[in-house]
């Protein structure tokens, strides 16, 4: 897994599944970068890509259930570390 791959998995822990919502959550990286990262995650089988027919065809993305609990645990540990870090944003 690449250096920044985990960041691109965060939206899936919070049930974001559409390209535009993922793009906004991540602070609007370029669409090309996000598309490349989603393709990489798909090829690593970390996420699934599905086509939905809503007024028009759209792709939705979901984290592969095999990895969801592991990623949630990692995210919890990172959050706890940041919560105990005096230099973390918001620490009083």
CATH topology: Arc Repressor Mutant, subunit A
Largest sheet: 2 strands, antiparallel
Order of helices and strands: HHHEEH
Shape: globular
Report the span from N to C terminus. Answer: 34 Å
Strand content: 15-25%
The strand line-up of the biggest sheet is 1-2
Count of runs of 4 or more consecutive helical residues: 4
Protein model, in words:
The protein has 92 residues and is α+β, with helices and mostly antiparallel strands. It has one domain: Arc Repressor Mutant, subunit A (Orthogonal Bundle). Helices cover 52% and strands 15% of the residues. The chain has helices at 5-13, 19-25, 31-43, 65-83; strands at residues 47-53, 57-63. The chain has a two-stranded antiparallel sheet. Strand 1 (47-53) and strand 2 (57-63) form a beta hairpin.
What descriptive keywords fit this protein?
92 residues, alpha+beta, Arc Repressor Mutant, subunit A, two-stranded antiparallel sheet, 4 helices, 52% helix, disordered C terminus
Describe this structure in a few short sentences.
With 92 residues, the protein is of the alpha+beta class. It has helices at 5-13, 19-25, 31-43, 65-83; strands at 47-53, 57-63. Residues 86-92 have low confidence and may be disordered.
Helices, strands, pairings?
Blueprint (H helix, E strand, L loop, with lengths): L4 H9 L5 H7 L5 H13 L3 E7 L3 E7 L1 H19 L9
Antiparallel strand pairs: 1-2
Helix pairs in contact: 1-4
